[in-house]
Amino acid sequence: MRQAFFYAIASALAFSIMNLFVKMLGQAMPAAEITFFRGLIGTVAVLAYMQLKGIAFSTENRGMLTIRGIFGGLGNLCNFIALAYMKLADAAILFQLSGIFVFIFSTLYLKESVPKGAGKWLLVILAAVAIMVKPWSFSEFHWYSLYAIAGAAFAAAAYTTIRKLTMAGHHNNYEIMFYFLVTTMLVGGLLMGPNFVWPDMRQWVILGIIGGISVFAQFFLTGAFVATNAIVAQFLQYIGVFFNAMWGFVIFDETLSWMTILAGIMMFIASVMLARLKEQNVKV
Questions:
Q1: How does this chain sit within the bilayer (predicted)?
Q2: Contact yes or no for 68/162 (Cβ under 8 A)
Q3: Whole-number Cα distances in Å, 61 to 92, 170, 171, 182, 258
Q4: All structural domains of the chain with their residue ranges
């Protein structure tokens, strides 16, 4: 559990730094293009490392590895769109819905049992999302929040697939990362369209940082899901909300409304309670 905690916190910090730089590029460069370069740089880095260390590709579960990559790539694309047009903390809070989707997917797909008392905490999280998104008010409803929610769902599907793959025990972490990154590159490339923006020198540097930091973030994230069950690993990353809020305040002078703070607290408490219930259920 201690190792899973370290991996989850490290991945949350690394992903928050990546989000910071994605937001810097988001207004000037299409999200699909950022997704493409993130995947390309990561693919080259991971493939080079695997060659250096003599890590071979397996011949099993290639279809599942590809599906995991597609889910991850689509999740990245949706998240990058949300980051460009939302406050960092707002987007980060909605990204944490991936924990709820993991809860649902792991129950349906991995046949992990639902702990008693989980229903009320799921309702608290749904109420928190409603407070943030404000679906009852057309003027206040933030349409880009739908991209954040979709990104959370795709990410959860990818995380659940990671857990399924590691339960099979035939795949190295770097192999799982490679499939994710190369598929992310393909997803971004296919959706770039005719509006390609050739990066200038500053943008190339930022893209390099995004690609590099994402490799470390993905390594720690994969390690967290290998070290513990999917629910606990995902909820441990909630600290990423605070990292994103810090970058948003320091770099972009973003502030949070009291309703967003309330929603974030509600989601955090409910998520922690769900993780505890899940952990207790696993020990029974």
A1: Multi-pass membrane protein
A2: yes
A3: 32, 9, 9, 16, 47
A4: 1-279
Q: What are the φ and ψ backbone dihedral angles of 149, each rounded to 5 degrees?
A: -65, -45
Residue type, 280: Q
Q: Pull the structure tokens for residue 70.
A: 């597609």
Task: Give the pTM.
Answer: 0.81
> How far apart are the C-alpha atoms of 124 and 252, rounded to whole Å?
30
Element (H, E) at 132: helix 118-133
Place of tokens 């990818």: 158
The full DSSP string for 93-110 is HHHTTHHHHHHHHHHHTS
- Alpha carbon distance 217, 186 (integer Å): 20
How many C-beta atoms lie closer than 10 Å to residue 5's C-beta? 16
Nearest to 132 by CA among 162, 92, 173, 188: 92
Whether the Cβ atoms of residue 229 and residue 1 lie closer than 8 Å to each other: no
CA distance 147 to 83: 9
Number of Cβ within 10 Å of residue 156's Cβ equals 24
62: Cβ–Cβ under 8 A, 6 or more apart, which residues? none
Q: How far is CA 216 from the centre of its chain?
A: 13
Q: CA nearest 239: which of 200, 274, 191, 271? A: 271
Give residue-wise pLDDT tens across range 226-272: 665 555 555 566 778 888 888 999 999 888 788 888 888 888 788 77
